Amino acid sequence: MIKGVIFDLDGVLVSTDKLHYLAWKRLAQDLGITDFTEQDNARQRGVSRMASLQVVLEKSNHSYTDQEKIDFAERKNQYYVELLESLTEKAILPNAAETIVLLRKKNIQIAVGSVSKNAPAILQRTGLLPLIDKVGCGLDIIRSKPDPEVFLIAAKKLGQNPKNCLVVEDSEAGIQAAKAAEMKSLALGPEKENPLADYHAVSLADPSINWDMIIAS
Ligand code: B16
Ligand code: MG
Question: Which coenzymes or cofactors are required (predicted)?
Answer without folding.
Answer: Mg(2+)
